[in-house]
Specification:
By secondary structure, the protein is an alpha+beta fold. Helix content is 42%, strand content 12%. It contains five helices and four strands; from the N terminus they run βαβαααβαβ. It has a four-stranded antiparallel β-sheet with strand order 2-3-1-4. Helix 3 packs antiparallel against helix 4. The chain is elongated, with a radius of gyration of 28 Å.
């Protein structure tokens, strides 16, 4: 079925949506350059930015001003919850809810329950570590606009990158671009969504 426009009808133009600026992607050649650039970006008071490299870089956390994570405290809390939960569960089941008197033995004894307490502590601590790490890193992240950049593919082989997020309170495109160039970037490109 085809539709024919009457002479009085006018086709409405489709609005083309402008791509949204997500940030700036700067490429650096080696470890020393990325360390200097990371210090420079941190000193420029940016808060939402990241470094991408093909391997772990010694000293990058201090260059970026990364604070220690809360994950060890979460794991400790998960382990303690597992320990006290197992302790309470065994006491409740054996001494309180279903006391079973045999040969004058005590209804509940700590040494007999150590294996279950230990296993519950390890189980809940490890589950807290895995799911806490995923939550704190906001994973799984199946898409990131920097994946559109053909240059960014080299982040897994031989290049180093800094991405400054456009949602950063200190972000002004021209100033951020000039900063990245002054820090020795080989190339700076816009990341659009």
């Amino acid at each position: 079925m085809s539709t024919v426009l009457d002479e009085t009808e006018v086709a409405t133009p489709v609005a083309v949506e402008e791509p949204e600026l997500v940030g700036l992607l700067a490429e650096y050649k080696d470890v020393d350059a990325i360390l200097r650039a990371a210090r420079g970006v941190r000193n420029a008071k940016f808060k939402r930015w990241d470094v991408h490299s093909p391997f772990p870089i010694h000293g990058i956390d201090s260059a970026m001003g990364v604070r220690p994570t809360i994950l060890p405290w979460l794991v400790l809390g998960g382990g303690l919850f597992g320990m006290f939960g197992a302790l309470w569960m065994q006491w409740f089941c054996n001494a309180h809810d279903y006391a079973f008197p045999i040969s004058g033995k005590p209804f509940w004894s700590l040494p007999a329950n150590i294996p279950v307490i230990f296993e519950s502590t390890i189980l809940l601590a490890s589950l807290t570590a895995v799911f806490g790490m995923l939550a704190l890193n906001r994973l799984p992240m199946l898409y990131n606009p920097v994946f559109k950049s053909s240059r960014f593919r080299r982040a897994t082989t031989d290049r180093f990158f800094i991405v400054i997020d456009a949602s950063d309170p200190a972000f002004e495109e021209e100033k951020a671009h000039n900063l990245l160039v002054s820090l020795g970037a080989l190339n700076v490109e816009r990341v659009e969504d």
